Records
---
Amino acid sequence: MTMRQRPVVPALTFGNGVNLVNLFELEELARKKMPPPVWDYFAGGAEDEITLAENHRAFQRVKLRPRLGVDVSKRDLSTQLFGQEISLPVLLAPTSYQKLAHPEGELAVARAAAEVGTIVVLGTGNYYSVDEVAAASSGPRWFQMYCFNNHEVTEKAIRRAEAAGCSALVVTIDGSDRRRFERLMRRPLVVSPQLGLSNLVGLGLDDTLLEKEDGINKWLSTLVKLDLTWDDIAWVKSVARVPVVLKGIITPQDALKAVEYGVDGIIVSNHGARQVDGTLTSIEALPEIAEAVDGKIEILLDSGVRRGTDVLKALALGAKAVLVGRPLLWGLAVGGADGVQRMLEMLREELDCAMAQTGQTDVKKVSRSLVTIRKY
Ligand SMILES: Cc1cc2nc3c(=O)[nH]c(=O)nc-3n(C[C@H](O)[C@H](O)[C@H](O)COP(=O)(O)O)c2cc1C
């Protein structure tokens, strides 16, 4: 950032007089505020949670190589995605059931993103619909969707999102109805179906399922296309009037398929380790994906980003920007929109500090030579 753009709110001071130094302290505070089953739903991962533990830890194997003697008195943290200017290269990832963290749920998250000047990715599994979010915030927004069994329904969902000002579609392709979330198998989270289906109401589906306790699972399992192939992606791309981004790419082979099928971007992601345990972490997968893609489409990354230095390392290894998932839920639980905003400001402050210390003046110019990867 240039010095003039420094945030007005002190980056490390949270609401209610609480001073938090980093996202890990925010996580701890959020954990104390949430009922255990809700915490398990937000925090948990697949099976033994090995990938979950590794997602952040893997960033520690990427080592920064600071360059000295560079005038870093002015730093620019802004970048552009599909022509949209954002003030820092951190977006808010789609996460379902945000209302469990705070009554204002997605409305608060969208307001925080607008305040900070970044993009919020609204989810299919949200309480507030894209129209309600559009009425509450004028900030930039994308829409996360699945490829549904029924093309007519999928197209209606796309049109609704576009009409509500969503400037890109994020198609999640690593979703499955067969995940083993053992925390929830031990201590199930029972939620009202209304909590996460607003974006599906009115698309011609059986809305009476909303009244049933397991309606949400029935709806999603009958809807989400489990026999998804690249032809479905080609179909989404042919229907969409805004850029299409695929979420859940973790191998260079699939990244190349994404290029071949003409999508506009990918999110290197293991879904925050919530789908299958034992996968590569995103930051491990990124270098070979970036090499394969070779600048042909935009690359973003999520899963395990918790520090400004994590953001910087991802940029150096070929991502244009990153997304955070759980941290937004922590900020939301602790302080609503203000909490999410302060979480982002903490990341901004850390990224700015890391840039100043490593001789970087512009997030758009961070190069591969800034890092080395230690093998151990
Ligand atoms: C509680 C929760 C719900 C999520 N729901 C969705 C979802 O509905 N669709 C989706 O594509 N990703 C979903 N994700 C994955 C996030 O978009 C993102 O990939 C992940 O959280 C990034 O990892 P991080 O939490 O370590 O930052 C969810 C993640 C969490 C924690």
---
Amino acid sequence: MASNGSTRNEWQWQKRTRRERRRLHREAERTGRGPLCGICNLEIDLSLDHAHRDYLTFDHVVPLARGGDLDGEIRPAHRSCNSRRGAGRPRATMTKQQWARSERPRTLLDW
Ligand SMILES: [Zn+2]
């Protein structure tokens, strides 16, 4: 169990990205195009399975590691781009949604 306050942050992040994800899906339905990745600027395919490397994730515009605010601006990004960039967010290869769905105890896994 994390006892350093990050659990609450994870939860807030999760709520926020879920909302944003819904918004992007609605927009994609309307425009017929996916959002652009904030890192590589290519379209993100919203129909991809969450296990896909180019699945939609969210990235802080200012990385937390460089003083970014957790509540600061976020942008869509491919998971592959996001994890390559990676700064400041451990477990960047796993989306918060996967994290939420995962029922395995985190202490047993080396993330
Ligand atoms: Zn990208």
